[in-house]
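Reproducibility note. Readers wishing to regenerate the assembly model reported in the main text can use the exact inputs given here. Chain order matters: entities are listed in the order in which they were concatenated for prediction.
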Amino acid sequence: MAIFILLCSFFLFSSVNGCDRCVHQSKAAYYSSPQSLSAGACGYGTMALGFNGGFIASGSSALHRGGIGCGGCFQIRCKNPRLCNSRGVKVILTDLVKNSNSTDFVLSSSAFLAMARPGMAQEMKKAITVDIEYKRIPCEYQKKNLSIRVEEKSQNPNYLAIKFLYQGGQTDIVAVDVAQVGSSSWRFMARDYGPVWSTSRPPAGPLQFRLVVTGGYDGKWIWADKEVLPAQWRPSLTYDMGVQIDDVAQEGCYPCDTREWKLM
Ligand SMILES: *[C@@H]1O[C@H](CO)[C@@H](O)[C@H](O)[C@H]1NC(C)=O
Ligand SMILES: *[C@@H]1O[C@H](CO)[C@@H](O)[C@H](O)[C@H]1NC(C)=O
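Running the prediction on these inputs yields the following structure tokens for the assembly.
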């Protein structure tokens, strides 16, 4: 029992944001212009506007986590039963809320209005902010594999910077290695920011990758040990890794993760 409690407190305190799977209370606002979400502290650029049918959001610094939280998925429910439906909305985090104060999310307007009851959209707009509860949920990409976009600043063969796209499940990428296909001499890449990782010593292509995602009690390796980038990889192209992550990191979040998140 003592060990159990020790483990619990370790995972409670080791996780920056407390427990991902706990329900949090906060407020949400919205951007009147979708372009506000396309510059971005996650580096997705205008590509973000196409994610998740445009249901995207910027999150507080505790959710953005210096960029590690980019691409994470959240279910958000508005707590005003007169204005809002009980389903809420599922969004992908693509940016950071600056000076967030007590507003953990600023949503794209389509995501914000998706929380409205029929006929209440105009009133929702006027409300500007609403009380919400939210939790992190696994991302689901039925028609996309985890993919790598080669960043514009890459220069084959001297510099490789990549951005991860379409990461399913509910984990964080904590390490990335790259090697020539068939070779076992892996080189680590460093996180530049958010979903962008780079190396100034890329091996000669074609290239394979392996990553470590947080598993909770232990990291988990994800292998893409076949050609992901061809020898002549090119900046601004996106390459399919042929794998998808669907793991959900185990966390000790007792007692919050034992409670059901009831519909209102
Ligand atoms: C944060 O909230 C406090 C208290 O409501 C307010 O005085 C302050 O101006 C807010 N700061 C920002 C940056 O919105
Ligand atoms: C994902 O990768 C698998 C294995 O390489 C492949 O068979 C499948 O077609 C890919 N799915 C998509 C949606 O591209």
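We highlight two features of this model. Residues 1-17 have pLDDT under 50 and may be disordered. The first strand starts at residue 24 and ends at 31.
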